[in-house]
Amino acid sequence: MATTSTLWDRLRYTLYAPVYDPIVRRLDAGRRRSLALADLQPGERVLIPGCGTGLDFAHLPPEAEVVAGDVAPGMIRAARAEADRLGSVVEVRRLDAHALDLPDASFDVVLLHLLLAVVPDPEAAIGEAARVLRPGGRVAVFDKFLPDGERPSIRRRLAGAVTRIVATDLNRQLGPLLDGTGLGLEHREPALFGGLFEAALLRKPLAAPHA
Predict the structure, then answer these.
(1) How far apart are the C-alpha atoms of 139 and 185, rounded to whole Å?
(2) Contact call for residues 23 and 114 (beta carbons, < 8 A)
(3) pLDDT of residue 16
(4) Residue ranges per domain, the chain?
(5) Model pLDDT for residues 36-82, shown as the tens digit of each residue
(6) How far apart, in whole angstroms, are the C-alpha atoms of residue 207 and residue 171?
(7) Are strands 107-113 and 45-49 parallel, antiparallel or unpaired?
(8) Which residue, 60, 59, 80, is CA-closest to 17?
(9) CATH class of the domain defined by 4-144+173-203
């Protein structure tokens, strides 16, 4: 059964879908940087939970096998239309990033673009990304974060209280979200707006060899 938070996300992002692209397309430089870090290879299976309207699709190599999804019906419709427009072979379906209806160790790369700052439970979302990754697989992250270990200023806390209602949390930290996932942080860098947005690459360790 859907939680209250999930129902709210489905409603608000369906309402946002018609105006989403003109706003979020301004962040494409960060999206492209994250994809460069991911270094997608021909034939790899790629998962995009929280794909929104499909703005990642235009930047993916045509050889990639892509499954993408969202929890909001309006976003799913827009993403399917974008895949059709591009002629991309992308499977677009309903996906809840908190509880992916997908097998363990079934993807080479997961793209978490503008997701961890908006989902109600980012720990669950990144845990699910780790679960569906194959050993050695990568997670490419592009989102807004407060630097690890830093306390938000009063101004940032006040701004965050407003933005959480509308769409996003300004004060989540990437490092603590990785605790217990088994994912290693290979690289992170400022991406946009003076470091408010970051791009990062995470990796799932290779399975330990059998004795």
Answers:
(1) 9
(2) no
(3) 52
(4) 4-144+173-203
(5) 999 999 889 999 999 999 999 999 988 889 999 999 888 899 999 99
(6) 33
(7) parallel
(8) 80
(9) alpha beta
